[in-house]
Design goal:
The complex is a heterodimer of chains A (158) and B (438). Chain A has 158 residues and is α/β, with parallel strands linked by helices. Helices cover 35% and strands 21% of the residues of chain A. Chain A contains four helices and five strands. Classes of the chains: A alpha/beta (158), B alpha+beta (438).
Chain lengths: 158, 438
Amino acid sequence: MVIKIIAIGNIYRRDDGAAILAARGLTKHHLAGVEILEALADPSALFAAWEGASAVIVIDASAPAGKPGQISRIVACENTLHVERPSASTHALGLAKTVELADALGQLPSRLIIYAIEGENFDYGEGLSAPVFKALNQLIDRVRTEALAIAEEEYSHA
Amino acid sequence: MPTRTIKVDYLARVEGEGALSLRIRDGVVTDAKLKIFEPPRFFESLLRGRAFTEAPDVTARICGICPVAYQMSAVHAMENAAGICVTGPLRDLRRLLYCGEWIESHALHVFLLHAPDFLGFDDAVAMARDHGDIVKTGLAIKKAGNAIVSLIGGREIHPINIRVGGFYRTPSKNELKALARTLEPVLDDVVKALHWAQTLPFPDYEAPYDFVSLFHGEEYPFNEGRIVSTSGLDISADAYENHFIEYQEPHSTALHSLIKGHGAYLVGPMARFHFNRALLTPMATMAAKEADLAGGCVNPFKSILIRLIEILFALEEALRLIDNYVEPESPAIAVEPKVSIGHSATEAPRGLLYHRYCLDAVGDILEAKIVPPTSQNQKTIENDLKDVAQQYVALPDEELQWRCEQTIRNYDPCISCSAHFLKLNVERQRSAEAPHGN
Protein backbone atom coordinates (compact mmCIF):
# COMPACT_ATOMS: atom_id res chain seq x y z
CA MET A 1 0.00 0.00 0.00
CA VAL A 2 1.42 3.30 -1.12
CA ILE A 3 -0.39 6.61 -0.94
CA LYS A 4 0.92 9.34 -3.18
CA ILE A 5 0.26 13.04 -3.38
CA ILE A 6 1.21 14.37 -6.81
CA ALA A 7 1.45 18.09 -7.46
CA ILE A 8 1.25 19.59 -10.93
CA GLY A 9 2.19 23.11 -11.87
CA ASN A 10 4.80 25.71 -12.61
CA ILE A 11 5.97 28.04 -9.85
CA TYR A 12 7.14 30.53 -12.47
CA ARG A 13 3.58 31.06 -13.74
CA ARG A 14 2.07 32.62 -10.61
CA ASP A 15 -1.05 30.70 -9.45
CA ASP A 16 -0.10 27.72 -11.63
CA GLY A 17 2.48 27.02 -8.93
CA ALA A 18 -0.11 26.73 -6.13
CA ALA A 19 -0.09 22.91 -6.13
CA ILE A 20 3.70 22.77 -6.06
CA LEU A 21 3.80 25.16 -3.10
CA ALA A 22 1.09 23.11 -1.36
CA ALA A 23 3.12 19.93 -1.90
CA ARG A 24 6.21 21.56 -0.45
CA GLY A 25 4.13 22.70 2.52
CA LEU A 26 2.80 19.16 2.96
CA THR A 27 6.33 17.76 2.96
CA LYS A 28 7.00 19.66 6.19
CA HIS A 29 4.22 17.67 7.89
CA HIS A 30 6.14 14.36 7.43
CA LEU A 31 3.02 12.37 6.66
CA ALA A 32 3.69 8.72 7.54
CA GLY A 33 3.05 6.31 4.66
CA VAL A 34 2.50 9.12 2.19
CA GLU A 35 4.85 9.93 -0.69
CA ILE A 36 4.77 13.46 -2.08
CA LEU A 37 5.84 14.07 -5.69
CA GLU A 38 5.90 16.79 -8.32
CA ALA A 39 5.07 15.72 -11.88
CA LEU A 40 4.19 16.97 -15.34
CA ALA A 41 0.58 16.75 -16.50
CA ASP A 42 1.64 14.27 -19.15
CA PRO A 43 0.65 10.59 -19.48
CA SER A 44 4.07 9.04 -19.19
CA ALA A 45 5.04 11.30 -16.30
CA LEU A 46 1.78 10.89 -14.38
CA PHE A 47 1.49 7.15 -15.06
CA ALA A 48 5.04 6.74 -13.76
CA ALA A 49 4.31 8.96 -10.78
CA TRP A 50 1.23 7.00 -9.62
CA GLU A 51 2.65 3.57 -10.52
CA GLY A 52 2.38 1.23 -7.53
CA ALA A 53 0.11 3.53 -5.57
CA SER A 54 -3.10 2.22 -4.05
CA ALA A 55 -4.45 5.73 -3.62
CA VAL A 56 -3.44 8.97 -5.28
CA ILE A 57 -4.27 12.58 -4.54
CA VAL A 58 -3.44 14.95 -7.40
CA ILE A 59 -3.29 18.67 -6.72
CA ASP A 60 -3.50 21.15 -9.60
CA ALA A 61 -4.49 24.72 -10.27
CA SER A 62 -7.67 25.20 -12.29
CA ALA A 63 -8.57 27.89 -14.78
CA PRO A 64 -10.16 31.12 -13.58
CA ALA A 65 -13.94 30.84 -13.23
CA GLY A 66 -14.79 33.82 -11.05
CA LYS A 67 -13.93 32.40 -7.61
CA PRO A 68 -10.14 32.56 -7.22
CA GLY A 69 -8.87 30.42 -4.36
CA GLN A 70 -11.92 28.15 -4.41
CA ILE A 71 -10.93 24.54 -3.71
CA SER A 72 -12.72 21.72 -5.52
CA ARG A 73 -12.47 18.02 -4.69
CA ILE A 74 -13.12 15.59 -7.53
CA VAL A 75 -13.18 11.79 -7.33
CA ALA A 76 -11.77 10.96 -10.75
CA CYS A 77 -13.39 7.56 -11.28
CA GLU A 78 -16.84 9.04 -10.53
CA ASN A 79 -16.57 12.25 -12.53
CA THR A 80 -15.42 13.41 -15.92
CA LEU A 81 -13.02 16.31 -15.87
CA HIS A 82 -14.22 19.12 -18.06
CA VAL A 83 -11.90 20.56 -20.70
CA GLU A 84 -13.03 24.00 -21.82
CA ARG A 85 -10.79 23.98 -24.88
CA PRO A 86 -8.28 21.28 -25.77
CA SER A 87 -4.69 22.38 -25.49
CA ALA A 88 -2.96 23.44 -28.69
CA SER A 89 0.17 21.87 -27.27
CA THR A 90 1.15 18.29 -27.86
CA HIS A 91 3.93 18.60 -25.33
CA ALA A 92 1.70 17.71 -22.42
CA LEU A 93 -1.87 16.40 -22.72
CA GLY A 94 -3.02 17.99 -19.49
CA LEU A 95 -4.59 16.38 -16.44
CA ALA A 96 -8.09 15.81 -17.81
CA LYS A 97 -6.91 14.01 -20.97
CA THR A 98 -4.32 12.04 -19.02
CA VAL A 99 -7.00 10.79 -16.61
CA GLU A 100 -9.24 9.94 -19.56
CA LEU A 101 -6.39 8.06 -21.24
CA ALA A 102 -5.54 6.20 -18.04
CA ASP A 103 -9.20 5.17 -17.73
CA ALA A 104 -9.24 3.90 -21.34
CA LEU A 105 -6.05 1.93 -20.71
CA GLY A 106 -7.18 0.57 -17.34
CA GLN A 107 -4.32 2.38 -15.64
CA LEU A 108 -6.24 4.57 -13.21
CA PRO A 109 -5.25 4.08 -9.60
CA SER A 110 -8.01 2.33 -7.67
CA ARG A 111 -8.56 5.58 -5.82
CA LEU A 112 -7.78 8.91 -7.50
CA ILE A 113 -8.83 12.17 -5.90
CA ILE A 114 -8.12 15.53 -7.44
CA TYR A 115 -7.91 18.76 -5.52
CA ALA A 116 -8.13 21.80 -7.78
CA ILE A 117 -7.51 25.31 -6.58
CA GLU A 118 -8.93 27.98 -8.83
CA GLY A 119 -6.28 30.40 -10.03
CA GLU A 120 -6.57 34.04 -10.89
CA ASN A 121 -3.24 35.04 -12.34
CA PHE A 122 -1.20 32.79 -14.63
CA ASP A 123 1.25 35.44 -15.85
CA TYR A 124 4.99 34.99 -15.90
CA GLY A 125 6.76 35.25 -12.56
CA GLU A 126 6.78 33.87 -9.05
CA GLY A 127 4.26 34.52 -6.29
CA LEU A 128 0.57 33.73 -5.89
CA SER A 129 -2.34 36.10 -6.25
CA ALA A 130 -3.80 37.26 -2.92
CA PRO A 131 -6.91 34.99 -2.95
CA VAL A 132 -4.92 31.90 -3.91
CA PHE A 133 -2.23 32.66 -1.33
CA LYS A 134 -4.97 33.07 1.30
CA ALA A 135 -6.46 29.66 0.40
CA LEU A 136 -3.15 27.79 0.30
CA ASN A 137 -3.12 26.72 3.97
CA GLN A 138 -6.69 25.49 3.65
CA LEU A 139 -5.66 23.42 0.63
CA ILE A 140 -2.71 21.96 2.53
CA ASP A 141 -4.93 21.16 5.49
CA ARG A 142 -7.64 19.46 3.42
CA VAL A 143 -5.16 17.34 1.45
CA ARG A 144 -3.25 16.42 4.62
CA THR A 145 -6.46 15.40 6.40
CA GLU A 146 -7.64 13.27 3.47
CA ALA A 147 -4.23 11.63 2.98
CA LEU A 148 -4.03 10.71 6.65
CA ALA A 149 -7.58 9.36 6.61
CA ILE A 150 -6.80 7.19 3.56
CA ALA A 151 -3.56 6.03 5.18
CA GLU A 152 -5.37 5.08 8.40
CA GLU A 153 -8.07 3.27 6.44
CA GLU A 154 -5.62 1.40 4.20
CA TYR A 155 -3.26 0.38 7.00
CA SER A 156 -6.11 -0.73 9.24
CA HIS A 157 -7.17 -3.12 6.45
CA ALA A 158 -3.62 -4.41 5.94
CA MET B 1 -23.80 25.18 -56.81
CA PRO B 2 -22.81 27.50 -53.94
CA THR B 3 -19.27 27.82 -52.66
CA ARG B 4 -18.53 25.06 -50.19
CA THR B 5 -16.55 26.03 -47.13
CA ILE B 6 -15.32 23.78 -44.37
CA LYS B 7 -14.02 25.26 -41.15
CA VAL B 8 -12.22 23.52 -38.33
CA ASP B 9 -11.48 25.68 -35.31
CA TYR B 10 -8.09 24.13 -34.90
CA LEU B 11 -6.29 21.05 -35.98
CA ALA B 12 -5.44 18.86 -33.01
CA ARG B 13 -2.31 16.79 -32.70
CA VAL B 14 0.15 19.33 -34.04
CA GLU B 15 2.26 21.55 -31.82
CA GLY B 16 1.27 25.18 -32.06
CA GLU B 17 -1.27 27.39 -33.78
CA GLY B 18 -1.79 27.68 -37.51
CA ALA B 19 -4.38 27.45 -40.22
CA LEU B 20 -4.79 25.78 -43.56
CA SER B 21 -6.73 27.09 -46.47
CA LEU B 22 -7.49 25.22 -49.66
CA ARG B 23 -9.03 26.79 -52.73
CA ILE B 24 -10.71 24.45 -55.18
CA ARG B 25 -12.13 25.76 -58.43
CA ASP B 26 -13.98 23.48 -60.83
CA GLY B 27 -12.45 20.47 -59.14
CA VAL B 28 -8.93 21.83 -59.41
CA VAL B 29 -6.96 22.72 -56.28
CA THR B 30 -5.61 26.16 -57.15
CA ASP B 31 -4.05 27.12 -53.83
CA ALA B 32 -2.96 25.55 -50.58
CA LYS B 33 -1.55 27.60 -47.74
CA LEU B 34 -0.29 26.54 -44.35
CA LYS B 35 -0.92 29.71 -42.39
CA ILE B 36 1.18 30.10 -39.29
CA PHE B 37 0.00 32.98 -37.16
CA GLU B 38 1.59 32.11 -33.86
CA PRO B 39 3.27 35.36 -32.81
CA PRO B 40 7.00 35.70 -33.40
CA ARG B 41 8.88 34.73 -30.27
CA PHE B 42 12.00 36.84 -30.72
CA PHE B 43 14.46 34.25 -29.43
CA GLU B 44 17.18 35.48 -31.76
CA SER B 45 16.78 38.98 -30.31
CA LEU B 46 16.59 37.68 -26.75
CA LEU B 47 20.01 36.13 -27.22
CA ARG B 48 21.72 39.38 -28.15
CA GLY B 49 23.88 40.66 -25.32
CA ARG B 50 23.75 37.32 -23.52
CA ALA B 51 26.90 35.36 -22.72
CA PHE B 52 27.78 32.53 -25.08
CA THR B 53 27.40 30.15 -22.14
CA GLU B 54 23.69 31.04 -21.82
CA ALA B 55 22.68 29.97 -25.32
CA PRO B 56 21.97 26.28 -24.54
CA ASP B 57 19.62 27.15 -21.67
CA VAL B 58 17.88 30.01 -23.48
CA THR B 59 17.37 28.15 -26.76
CA ALA B 60 16.15 25.01 -24.94
CA ARG B 61 13.06 27.05 -24.11
CA ILE B 62 12.12 27.28 -27.77
CA CYS B 63 10.60 23.79 -27.58
CA GLY B 64 9.39 21.47 -24.82
CA ILE B 65 9.69 18.33 -26.92
CA CYS B 66 13.01 18.93 -28.68
CA PRO B 67 15.01 21.13 -26.26
CA VAL B 68 18.01 18.85 -26.66
CA ALA B 69 18.20 19.69 -30.36
CA TYR B 70 18.36 23.41 -29.58
CA GLN B 71 20.95 22.80 -26.90
CA MET B 72 23.05 20.64 -29.19
CA SER B 73 23.01 23.11 -32.08
CA ALA B 74 23.83 25.92 -29.64
CA VAL B 75 26.79 24.25 -27.94
CA HIS B 76 28.26 22.99 -31.19
CA ALA B 77 27.98 26.45 -32.77
CA MET B 78 29.70 28.03 -29.75
CA GLU B 79 32.45 25.43 -29.82
CA ASN B 80 32.82 26.02 -33.55
CA ALA B 81 33.22 29.73 -32.78
CA ALA B 82 35.87 28.97 -30.17
CA GLY B 83 37.67 26.56 -32.48
CA ILE B 84 37.35 23.53 -30.24
CA CYS B 85 35.87 20.10 -30.73
CA VAL B 86 34.38 17.93 -27.97
CA THR B 87 35.49 14.33 -28.39
CA GLY B 88 35.56 11.02 -26.54
CA PRO B 89 33.05 10.17 -23.83
CA LEU B 90 31.58 13.68 -23.81
CA ARG B 91 30.83 13.41 -27.53
CA ASP B 92 29.29 9.99 -26.92
CA LEU B 93 27.14 11.32 -24.08
CA ARG B 94 25.78 14.00 -26.43
CA ARG B 95 24.82 11.29 -28.94
CA LEU B 96 23.21 9.34 -26.10
CA LEU B 97 21.23 12.39 -25.02
CA TYR B 98 20.03 12.93 -28.59
CA CYS B 99 18.98 9.23 -28.75
CA GLY B 100 16.71 9.94 -25.79
CA GLU B 101 15.12 12.95 -27.45
CA TRP B 102 14.50 11.14 -30.74
CA ILE B 103 12.87 8.23 -28.87
CA GLU B 104 10.54 10.39 -26.78
CA SER B 105 9.66 12.80 -29.58
CA HIS B 106 9.10 10.12 -32.23
CA ALA B 107 7.11 7.92 -29.80
CA LEU B 108 4.83 10.83 -28.90
CA HIS B 109 4.17 11.53 -32.55
CA VAL B 110 3.83 7.95 -33.79
CA PHE B 111 1.52 6.61 -31.08
CA LEU B 112 -0.38 9.61 -29.74
CA LEU B 113 -0.56 12.03 -32.68
CA HIS B 114 -0.17 10.25 -36.01
CA ALA B 115 -1.48 6.69 -35.53
CA PRO B 116 -5.08 7.84 -34.84
CA ASP B 117 -5.15 9.30 -38.39
CA PHE B 118 -4.69 5.90 -39.98
CA LEU B 119 -7.29 4.21 -37.78
CA GLY B 120 -9.99 6.87 -37.95
CA PHE B 121 -9.84 8.05 -34.35
CA ASP B 122 -10.09 11.67 -33.25
CA ASP B 123 -7.29 11.28 -30.75
CA ALA B 124 -5.15 8.85 -28.78
CA VAL B 125 -7.73 8.61 -26.00
CA ALA B 126 -10.36 7.33 -28.44
CA MET B 127 -7.77 5.03 -30.01
CA ALA B 128 -6.77 3.69 -26.59
CA ARG B 129 -10.27 2.28 -26.03
CA ASP B 130 -9.88 -0.07 -29.03
CA HIS B 131 -6.10 -0.33 -29.30
CA GLY B 132 -5.02 -0.10 -25.67
CA ASP B 133 -2.04 -2.38 -26.08
CA ILE B 134 -0.43 -0.31 -28.82
CA VAL B 135 -0.95 2.93 -26.86
CA LYS B 136 0.59 1.29 -23.78
CA THR B 137 3.51 0.18 -25.92
CA GLY B 138 3.95 3.70 -27.20
CA LEU B 139 3.96 5.15 -23.70
CA ALA B 140 6.53 2.55 -22.59
CA ILE B 141 8.78 3.50 -25.51
CA LYS B 142 8.40 7.19 -24.75
CA LYS B 143 9.24 6.49 -21.11
CA ALA B 144 12.53 4.92 -22.22
CA GLY B 145 13.44 8.11 -24.08
CA ASN B 146 12.43 10.20 -21.08
CA ALA B 147 14.73 8.09 -18.88
CA ILE B 148 17.73 8.82 -21.07
CA VAL B 149 17.06 12.55 -21.22
CA SER B 150 16.39 12.63 -17.49
CA LEU B 151 19.67 10.95 -16.58
CA ILE B 152 21.97 12.72 -19.02
CA GLY B 153 20.11 16.03 -19.17
CA GLY B 154 19.21 16.36 -15.51
CA ARG B 155 15.44 16.36 -16.12
CA GLU B 156 12.97 15.27 -18.80
CA ILE B 157 11.86 18.66 -20.08
CA HIS B 158 14.23 21.52 -20.74
CA PRO B 159 17.36 19.72 -19.56
CA ILE B 160 19.70 21.71 -17.33
CA ASN B 161 22.91 19.70 -17.50
CA ILE B 162 24.20 20.83 -20.90
CA ARG B 163 26.95 23.38 -21.23
CA VAL B 164 29.31 24.67 -23.84
CA GLY B 165 32.29 22.29 -23.66
CA GLY B 166 30.37 19.33 -22.26
CA PHE B 167 28.15 18.84 -19.23
CA TYR B 168 27.88 20.05 -15.63
CA ARG B 169 27.79 16.46 -14.40
CA THR B 170 28.51 13.21 -16.15
CA PRO B 171 26.87 9.93 -15.15
CA SER B 172 28.73 7.04 -13.57
CA LYS B 173 29.13 3.78 -15.45
CA ASN B 174 26.80 2.15 -12.94
CA GLU B 175 24.09 4.75 -13.55
CA LEU B 176 24.29 4.03 -17.27
CA LYS B 177 24.23 0.26 -16.71
CA ALA B 178 21.02 0.68 -14.71
CA LEU B 179 19.61 2.79 -17.54
CA ALA B 180 20.55 0.11 -20.08
CA ARG B 181 18.55 -2.48 -18.13
CA THR B 182 15.43 -0.33 -18.59
CA LEU B 183 16.10 0.17 -22.31
CA GLU B 184 16.77 -3.44 -23.35
CA PRO B 185 13.18 -4.74 -23.03
CA VAL B 186 11.92 -1.83 -25.13
CA LEU B 187 13.71 -3.11 -28.24
CA ASP B 188 11.13 -5.88 -28.61
CA ASP B 189 8.31 -3.40 -28.04
CA VAL B 190 9.52 -1.31 -30.97
CA VAL B 191 9.90 -4.34 -33.26
CA LYS B 192 6.33 -5.39 -32.45
CA ALA B 193 5.09 -1.84 -32.99
CA LEU B 194 6.80 -1.80 -36.38
CA HIS B 195 5.04 -5.02 -37.38
CA TRP B 196 1.75 -3.42 -36.31
CA ALA B 197 2.47 -0.16 -38.14
CA GLN B 198 3.15 -2.01 -41.39
CA THR B 199 -0.48 -3.10 -41.40
CA LEU B 200 -1.79 0.48 -41.39
CA PRO B 201 -3.59 1.68 -44.54
CA PHE B 202 -1.13 3.96 -46.32
CA PRO B 203 -2.48 6.36 -48.95
CA ASP B 204 -0.89 5.80 -52.32
CA TYR B 205 1.04 9.04 -52.70
CA GLU B 206 4.64 9.75 -53.59
CA ALA B 207 6.50 12.97 -54.32
CA PRO B 208 9.90 13.85 -55.84
CA TYR B 209 11.34 15.46 -52.71
CA ASP B 210 14.59 17.37 -52.55
CA PHE B 211 15.79 15.77 -49.32
CA VAL B 212 18.23 17.68 -47.06
CA SER B 213 20.00 16.20 -44.07
CA LEU B 214 23.32 15.76 -42.40
CA PHE B 215 25.58 13.04 -43.77
CA HIS B 216 28.48 11.88 -41.65
CA GLY B 217 29.60 8.83 -43.56
CA GLU B 218 30.52 6.69 -40.57
CA GLU B 219 27.49 7.05 -38.31
CA TYR B 220 23.80 7.90 -38.51
CA PRO B 221 23.95 11.65 -37.88
CA PHE B 222 23.03 13.59 -34.79
CA ASN B 223 25.51 16.38 -34.22
CA GLU B 224 28.05 16.20 -37.00
CA GLY B 225 28.25 15.84 -40.74
CA ARG B 226 27.98 17.70 -43.99
CA ILE B 227 24.70 19.10 -45.23
CA VAL B 228 23.70 17.18 -48.33
CA SER B 229 20.70 17.34 -50.64
CA THR B 230 19.17 15.20 -53.36
CA SER B 231 19.77 18.11 -55.72
CA GLY B 232 23.53 17.81 -55.21
CA LEU B 233 24.37 20.06 -52.30
CA ASP B 234 27.34 18.93 -50.18
CA ILE B 235 28.40 21.71 -47.80
CA SER B 236 29.59 22.34 -44.29
CA ALA B 237 27.31 24.16 -41.83
CA ASP B 238 29.25 27.39 -42.22
CA ALA B 239 28.13 27.56 -45.87
CA TYR B 240 24.42 27.08 -45.02
CA GLU B 241 23.41 30.68 -45.63
CA ASN B 242 25.17 30.72 -48.99
CA HIS B 243 22.81 28.04 -50.29
CA PHE B 244 19.58 28.40 -48.30
CA ILE B 245 17.42 31.50 -48.29
CA GLU B 246 14.70 32.45 -45.85
CA TYR B 247 11.84 34.65 -46.99
CA GLN B 248 8.60 35.90 -45.58
CA GLU B 249 5.17 34.95 -46.85
CA PRO B 250 2.29 37.19 -45.75
CA HIS B 251 0.33 34.20 -44.44
CA SER B 252 3.02 32.98 -42.05
CA THR B 253 4.86 34.42 -39.07
CA ALA B 254 7.50 31.73 -39.61
CA LEU B 255 9.98 32.32 -42.40
CA HIS B 256 9.87 29.95 -45.36
CA SER B 257 13.07 28.42 -46.71
CA LEU B 258 14.29 27.47 -50.17
CA ILE B 259 17.49 26.11 -51.63
CA LYS B 260 18.83 28.77 -53.94
CA GLY B 261 18.25 27.77 -57.52
CA HIS B 262 16.25 24.68 -56.59
CA GLY B 263 13.27 25.55 -54.40
CA ALA B 264 11.38 23.73 -51.69
CA TYR B 265 13.05 20.91 -49.80
CA LEU B 266 12.35 18.39 -47.08
CA VAL B 267 14.18 17.85 -43.80
CA GLY B 268 13.42 15.22 -41.16
CA PRO B 269 13.32 11.44 -40.75
CA MET B 270 12.64 10.68 -44.43
CA ALA B 271 15.58 12.82 -45.52
CA ARG B 272 17.92 11.34 -42.91
CA PHE B 273 16.82 7.85 -43.86
CA HIS B 274 17.36 8.61 -47.55
CA PHE B 275 21.02 9.52 -47.10
CA ASN B 276 22.02 7.50 -44.06
CA ARG B 277 20.05 4.23 -44.03
CA ALA B 278 23.21 2.22 -44.79
CA LEU B 279 24.50 3.39 -41.40
CA LEU B 280 21.57 2.13 -39.36
CA THR B 281 22.15 -0.36 -36.55
CA PRO B 282 21.54 -4.09 -37.23
CA MET B 283 17.98 -4.41 -35.92
CA ALA B 284 16.96 -1.10 -37.53
CA THR B 285 18.45 -2.23 -40.86
CA MET B 286 16.51 -5.48 -40.64
CA ALA B 287 13.34 -3.59 -39.73
CA ALA B 288 13.75 -1.34 -42.79
CA LYS B 289 14.03 -4.42 -45.02
CA GLU B 290 10.98 -6.03 -43.45
CA ALA B 291 9.04 -2.80 -43.97
CA ASP B 292 10.08 -2.89 -47.64
CA LEU B 293 11.87 0.43 -47.22
CA ALA B 294 15.45 -0.73 -47.81
CA GLY B 295 15.40 1.05 -51.18
CA GLY B 296 14.23 4.36 -49.67
CA CYS B 297 10.86 6.00 -49.18
CA VAL B 298 9.13 8.92 -50.92
CA ASN B 299 5.66 8.30 -49.49
CA PRO B 300 5.30 10.83 -46.64
CA PHE B 301 2.50 8.81 -45.04
CA LYS B 302 5.08 6.07 -44.43
CA SER B 303 7.17 8.49 -42.37
CA ILE B 304 5.48 6.81 -39.39
CA LEU B 305 7.46 3.67 -40.26
CA ILE B 306 10.69 5.59 -40.60
CA ARG B 307 10.19 7.22 -37.21
CA LEU B 308 9.78 3.75 -35.70
CA ILE B 309 12.94 2.57 -37.47
CA GLU B 310 14.75 5.60 -36.08
CA ILE B 311 13.45 4.76 -32.58
CA LEU B 312 14.88 1.27 -32.97
CA PHE B 313 18.16 2.74 -34.18
CA ALA B 314 18.29 5.19 -31.27
CA LEU B 315 17.71 2.42 -28.73
CA GLU B 316 20.40 0.21 -30.21
CA GLU B 317 22.76 3.17 -30.47
CA ALA B 318 22.03 4.15 -26.87
CA LEU B 319 22.86 0.64 -25.68
CA ARG B 320 26.08 0.61 -27.72
CA LEU B 321 27.14 3.98 -26.33
CA ILE B 322 26.40 2.84 -22.78
CA ASP B 323 28.33 -0.38 -23.30
CA ASN B 324 31.41 1.49 -24.54
CA TYR B 325 31.19 4.31 -21.99
CA VAL B 326 34.26 5.24 -20.01
CA GLU B 327 33.76 7.90 -17.37
CA PRO B 328 35.46 11.12 -18.53
CA GLU B 329 38.13 12.78 -16.42
CA SER B 330 36.21 16.04 -16.46
CA PRO B 331 32.55 16.79 -17.27
CA ALA B 332 33.57 19.56 -19.65
CA ILE B 333 36.53 21.04 -21.45
CA ALA B 334 37.45 24.70 -21.14
CA VAL B 335 36.12 27.01 -23.84
CA GLU B 336 37.69 30.41 -24.32
CA PRO B 337 35.60 32.81 -26.37
CA LYS B 338 37.00 35.14 -29.00
CA VAL B 339 35.73 37.47 -31.68
CA SER B 340 34.27 34.91 -34.03
CA ILE B 341 31.29 33.46 -35.83
CA GLY B 342 30.18 29.92 -35.04
CA HIS B 343 27.89 27.69 -37.09
CA SER B 344 26.27 24.34 -36.42
CA ALA B 345 23.62 22.11 -37.87
CA THR B 346 22.33 19.10 -35.94
CA GLU B 347 19.47 16.67 -36.55
CA ALA B 348 16.44 17.52 -34.41
CA PRO B 349 13.74 14.82 -34.43
CA ARG B 350 11.93 16.89 -37.10
CA GLY B 351 15.06 17.59 -39.13
CA LEU B 352 17.97 19.90 -39.70
CA LEU B 353 18.35 22.65 -37.11
CA TYR B 354 20.80 25.42 -38.01
CA HIS B 355 22.32 27.91 -35.56
CA ARG B 356 24.78 30.77 -36.16
CA TYR B 357 26.19 33.10 -33.51
CA CYS B 358 28.46 36.17 -33.79
CA LEU B 359 30.47 36.67 -30.60
CA ASP B 360 32.57 39.54 -29.29
CA ALA B 361 35.92 39.20 -27.50
CA VAL B 362 34.36 38.28 -24.14
CA GLY B 363 31.87 35.88 -25.67
CA ASP B 364 28.77 38.05 -25.61
CA ILE B 365 26.35 37.30 -28.43
CA LEU B 366 26.15 40.08 -30.99
CA GLU B 367 23.85 38.29 -33.40
CA ALA B 368 22.02 34.96 -33.48
CA LYS B 369 20.30 33.11 -36.30
CA ILE B 370 18.17 29.98 -35.77
CA VAL B 371 16.48 28.07 -38.57
CA PRO B 372 14.18 25.31 -37.20
CA PRO B 373 13.07 22.30 -39.23
CA THR B 374 9.33 23.05 -39.41
CA SER B 375 9.87 26.44 -41.01
CA GLN B 376 12.16 24.78 -43.57
CA ASN B 377 9.44 22.25 -44.39
CA GLN B 378 6.57 24.74 -44.74
CA LYS B 379 6.76 25.08 -48.51
CA THR B 380 7.00 21.31 -49.00
CA ILE B 381 4.03 20.79 -46.67
CA GLU B 382 2.03 23.21 -48.84
CA ASN B 383 3.15 21.41 -52.01
CA ASP B 384 2.09 18.08 -50.51
CA LEU B 385 -1.25 19.53 -49.40
CA LYS B 386 -2.00 20.80 -52.87
CA ASP B 387 -1.06 17.49 -54.51
CA VAL B 388 -2.79 15.28 -51.94
CA ALA B 389 -5.94 17.44 -52.04
CA GLN B 390 -5.94 17.20 -55.82
CA GLN B 391 -5.50 13.42 -55.74
CA TYR B 392 -8.44 13.12 -53.34
CA VAL B 393 -10.53 16.07 -54.56
CA ALA B 394 -13.53 13.84 -55.30
CA LEU B 395 -13.85 12.93 -51.63
CA PRO B 396 -16.60 14.59 -49.59
CA ASP B 397 -15.40 17.63 -47.67
CA GLU B 398 -15.16 15.82 -44.35
CA GLU B 399 -13.00 13.03 -45.75
CA LEU B 400 -10.86 15.47 -47.74
CA GLN B 401 -10.30 17.50 -44.60
CA TRP B 402 -9.21 14.37 -42.72
CA ARG B 403 -6.72 13.45 -45.43
CA CYS B 404 -5.32 16.99 -45.47
CA GLU B 405 -4.87 17.04 -41.71
CA GLN B 406 -3.14 13.68 -41.93
CA THR B 407 -0.86 15.11 -44.62
CA ILE B 408 0.20 17.92 -42.30
CA ARG B 409 0.82 15.51 -39.45
CA ASN B 410 3.13 13.46 -41.67
CA TYR B 411 5.63 16.16 -40.84
CA ASP B 412 5.07 16.22 -37.07
CA PRO B 413 5.15 20.01 -37.44
CA CYS B 414 6.16 22.02 -34.43
CA ILE B 415 4.57 25.35 -35.23
CA SER B 416 5.62 26.76 -31.85
CA CYS B 417 9.21 26.12 -32.78
CA SER B 418 8.81 27.82 -36.12
CA ALA B 419 6.79 30.75 -34.91
CA HIS B 420 -0.46 27.08 -32.41
CA PHE B 421 -4.18 26.49 -33.68
CA LEU B 422 -4.63 25.14 -37.10
CA LYS B 423 -7.83 26.19 -38.78
CA LEU B 424 -8.82 24.43 -41.95
CA ASN B 425 -10.76 26.30 -44.54
CA VAL B 426 -11.65 24.49 -47.77
CA GLU B 427 -13.20 26.75 -50.36
CA ARG B 428 -14.75 25.08 -53.40
CA GLN B 429 -15.77 27.30 -56.32
CA ARG B 430 -17.07 27.02 -59.80
CA SER B 431 -15.62 29.34 -62.40
CA ALA B 432 -18.71 31.56 -62.45
CA GLU B 433 -18.27 32.39 -58.76
CA ALA B 434 -16.04 35.15 -57.46
CA PRO B 435 -13.33 34.10 -55.04
CA HIS B 436 -13.77 35.17 -51.46
CA GLY B 437 -12.61 34.20 -48.01
CA ASN B 438 -8.97 33.64 -47.19
